[in-house]
């Protein structure tokens, strides 16, 4: 297939490389042009703009930072919408607002261009290894059409519902993560202040109902008070903004997610925004006088 | 070994049966005497009181509901302390206050009776199958001495630290569970109000960083709004009281645990105390107008 890929960030660049490896023809574009080079070295063509990249493509993938960035590369000056052929398919793999997603799709549809949302989880490691979890929203036929390309990037590809459902699912992922990190942090700080051997505590509880990916993989960061990446506080906080906006629109009360969002405000203000999300334990440690 | 076992509840009775199966001699006592019968049928002797059960026992196990119950059966009239021989070992497997644990141990030690705390997780199913996780606190030699009996009841036996450390670890378990249930509930309600197929959503996120025992095993309850046991709200709420008391004594700020504790107050008041803990989703559903 002929694929355009807009956004050569930490996620986008390795994802585009995996599409190349899958045997597809890929044209890439990035606002900061030199970031296209490593992917061009791997065999991709380069384009001057999102518009130019989209010309002749069957599928146009966008993977950029936030809602305004997606709006800009698709609908803005020299945007995808001006290069895409009628009948082509836009696949937005960014994590953005589900409402904005539906609005962008309406604009595209006026030009006979289809769209699905397909945000991912699994981090830069998953992007490199082609093992991302991809949560796709849109019409079944469109998701099916994108499948050969999605399968080059991800291990688990789930069609969760209509357009925007992928973004809601990603929001749910971030909401669940939020409270899990916070409660693991609370438990770890209680144990540390009680003087327990936290390695043994984690071992004692990880196999039962308290077990989680966070407990098995990030509780040790909280105990050692060192937070190597992983997944940045700043990015999770952006996603919590999307989740809380969706909660407001849908009328959902999310006290734990809101609490984490507030603690992240403070973490970022104190200069910890580029640490791993397990740095949420800093808040509980500091509030509890654990230095 | 000669073992006394005080407390023939949902947990204690099957645990005592497993000790019998392990080849030990067991004498049981329960305040409501007829609850001793099934265990006596399996081969246990019966005693009129905790004191009488303790006479001649190497190890005296207590497994009752709450701190005052443990104080009563060990230190109260006809309590374990009046029957136990110097050099014998009390193993408290109830979930109670770590501070009360240390106070009881001091009283026992004045009569040359040793004590360890060994609360469990894994529920009535784990008690029946001998697959409990046992979190032991106390001196290493005492934990070692109890090991043949603990191994008859549990799969994972971890010596987590000095006396009371088992209770702190159990509190940590319940704290971690609390926030995980709450955040899974928030995510599920958001998805339901957005009209998503929640089975697919769970499948899409359970394998990644949002994964937990709660998400894999209890999120379906939240979606179907039916909460079969499992683990009672009422019992988790009792344990949260212990956890929050420990947090107060140790000086730890636990906003998520406190939030769950408050929501549980309301759940119990509304008549949901005997449902599974996943009923925490009722709070988020009702606050969000999802009927």
Written account of the structure:
Chain A is an alpha/beta fold. Chain A has 2 domains: 162 residues, NAD(P)-binding Rossmann-like Domain (Rossmann fold, 3-Layer(aba) Sandwich), CATH 3.40.50; 120 residues, N-(1-d-carboxylethyl)-l-norvaline Dehydrogenase, domain 2 (Orthogonal Bundle), CATH 1.10.1040.10. Chain A contains 13 helices and 9 strands. Chain A has a 6-stranded parallel β-sheet, with helices on both faces. The first copy, chain A, is elongated. The model of chain A has no long low-confidence stretch (mean pLDDT 97). At the A-B interface, strand 9, helix 8, helix 9, helix 10 and helix 11 of A face strand 9, helix 8, helix 9, helix 10 and helix 11 of B.
Distance between the termini of chain A: 55 Å
Low-confidence runs of chain A: none
| Helix-residue proportion of chain A | 40-55%
Biggest interface, and residues per chain?
A-B, 70 and 70 residues
Let me know the CATH homologous superfamily of the largest domain in chain A.
NAD(P)-binding Rossmann-like Domain
CATH topology type of the largest domain in chain A: Rossmann fold
């Amino acid at each position: 297939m002929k694929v355009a890929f807009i956004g050569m960030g930490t996620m986008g660049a390795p994802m585009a490389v995996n599409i190349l490896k899958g045997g597809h023809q890929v044209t890439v574009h990035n606002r900061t042009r030199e970031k296209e080079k490593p992917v061009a070295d791997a065999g991709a063509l380069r384009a001057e703009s999102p518009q130019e990249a989209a010309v002749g493509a069957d599928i146009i993938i966008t993977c950029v930072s936030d809602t305004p960035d997606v709006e800009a590369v698709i609908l803005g000056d020299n945007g995808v919408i001006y290069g895409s052929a009628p009948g082509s398919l836009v696949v937005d793999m960014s994590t953005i607002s589900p409402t904005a997603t539906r609005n962008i799709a309406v604009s595209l549809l006026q030009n006979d261009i289809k769209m699905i949302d397909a945000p991912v989880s699994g981090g830069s490691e998953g992007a490199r290894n082609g093992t991302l979890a991809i949560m796709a929203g849109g019409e079944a036929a469109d998701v099916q059409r994108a499948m050969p390309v999605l399968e080059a990037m991800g291990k688990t590809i789930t069609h969760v519902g209509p357009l925007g459902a992928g973004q809601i699912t990603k929001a749910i992922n971030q909401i669940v993560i939020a409270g899990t990190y916070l409660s693991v942090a609370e438990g770890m700080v209680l144990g540390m202040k009680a003087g327990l051997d936290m390695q043994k505590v984690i071992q004692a509880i990880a196999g039962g109902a308290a077990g989680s990916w966070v407990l098995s993989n990030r509780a040790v960061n909280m105990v050692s008070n060192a937070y190597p990446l992983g997944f940045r506080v700043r990015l999770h906080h952006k996603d919590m903004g999307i989740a809380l906006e969706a909660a407001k629109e849908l009328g959902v009360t999310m006290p734990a997610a809101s609490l984490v969002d507030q603690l992240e405000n403070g973490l970022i203000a104190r200069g910890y925004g580029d640490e791993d999300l397990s740095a949420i334990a800093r808040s509980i440690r500091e509030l509890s006088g654990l230095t």
